[in-house]
Amino acid sequence: MFVRLATLPLFLVVFCVASLQAQKTLPPPKIDWTDSSDVFDMETPSWMILTKAKPQMELWGGPSTMRRDGAAKIEDNTSIGLTLGTVRTREREEKTVYSSSDGVYVWYAMSKDQPQPPVTQTADIWRFGFNSTKGYGYQIGESMGVNFYAGSSVLSWSVVNPKSTVADSLQNLALQEFDGSVRFGAAAQAGLGLQLTKNIELRGSYDWSQIYSRHLFWFWAGSGVIEGVADGIATAFVKAVGRSSPAAAPIMYFVLKNAVSMGFAGLRQHQMNWPFETVAPLNVQTWRVSAVITF
Predict the structure, then answer these.
(1) Domain membership of residue 192 as a residue range
(2) Is residue 13 a part of any domain in this protein?
(3) CA distances (Å), 201 to each of 212, 265, 284, in order?
(4) Residue 85: what are its φ and ψ, rounded to 5°?
(5) Which of 14, 102, 130, 231 sits 20 to 30 Å CA-CA off 85?
């Protein structure tokens, strides 16, 4: 009995060494990085997620226009923003590349102190939240490339600060209604990027943000489900194209995914939770030029 107990530690040591050696020889789990759901799968080791993601920073600026049904003309703004997050990339067939980035952002739209006729209102906007951007691109050489993006604000909140009023009480209320508290909203974004080096990309994009005067959760969720179904159909078609003709995937992704997101933004510009009967949001459309740095 004593001999058996004495050999037990030796057996455990041999077992552990053999297990570690076996783990070294086993190939890492194969994951389809073209599908973002694989990245966050519960069976995906956390170390693999961390090693595949790189820190990324985006600095951008551009002009913004604000419109809302019933409001008087609003002065155009100059917007600047900063996004901090991570990006995962994977090379695919026929020199195509897939990328998926997630992060947090802060965004400031600055208006003029005094509007010029016929503009009768101005407003500053602070906006912050979480965003997700995915896309495909073409690799040119070892470090250069062209990328096509579709993105959205997963969750966003805005603080609208009107700085002038109009004589008409109804036109005044259409913008003043947003003053005084943090407002929930959503956004869709389409972009094109020129990869200059492995670490630097110049990107041009169009952002359509919609700020809600109030958050009607069930109407918002119902509208989101309808968009999700349309987006899922577009995604499935893009994946089918990618399997059959990989070189066509970046263009098809850009066209179909942005057609869905911008189409629903257009449907919601008069009803914030289309197709449900709700009030119009504050629509903010921005043309952005940005520098993206990957560390």
Answers:
(1) 54-294
(2) no
(3) 33, 27, 25
(4) -175, -155
(5) 231
Which single residue is written with the structure tokens 């992704």?
A: 253
Q: Which residues contact 86 (CB under 8 A, 6 or more apart)?
A: 53, 54, 55, 56, 101, 102, 103
**Is there a domain that residue 266 lies in?**
yes
Instruction: Judge whether 4 lies within some domain.
Output: no
In 3D space, the residue among 291, 288, 259, 264 whose CA is nearest the CA of residue 276 turns out to be 264
**84 inside domain:** yes
Convert 267-279 to b/e letters by CB count within 10 Å (16 or more is b): ebbebbbbeeebb
Per the CB < 8 A criterion, the answer to whether 221 and 185 are in contact is no
Q: What is the DSSP letter of 115?
A: P
Residue-wise pLDDT for 89-106, tens only, equals 988 877 889 999 999 999
Q: Is the pLDDT of residue 151 over 50?
A: yes
Looking only at the bridges linking them, the beta strands covering 182-195 and 123-140 are: unpaired
Structure confidence at residue 163 as a pLDDT band (50, 70, 90):
confident
In the Cβ-directed half-sphere of 37, how many Cα atoms lie within 13 Å? Answer: 2
CA separation for the pair 75, 64 (Å, rounded):
9
| CATH code where residue 257 lies | 2.40.160.20
Least Cα distance to 72 among 125, 119, 123, 124 occurs for 119
Taking the C-alpha atoms of residue 275 and residue 293, their distance in angstroms, rounded to an integer, is 39
pTM summary value:
0.78
Taking Cα atoms as reference points, which of 206, 265, 189, 205 lies closest to residue 230? Answer: 265
Q: What's the structural domain count of the chain? A: 1
| Alpha carbon of residue 183 to chain centroid | 19
Residue 149's φ and ψ, nearest 5 degrees, are -120, 150
Lowest mean pLDDT among 35-39, 50-54, 175-179, 226-230: 35-39
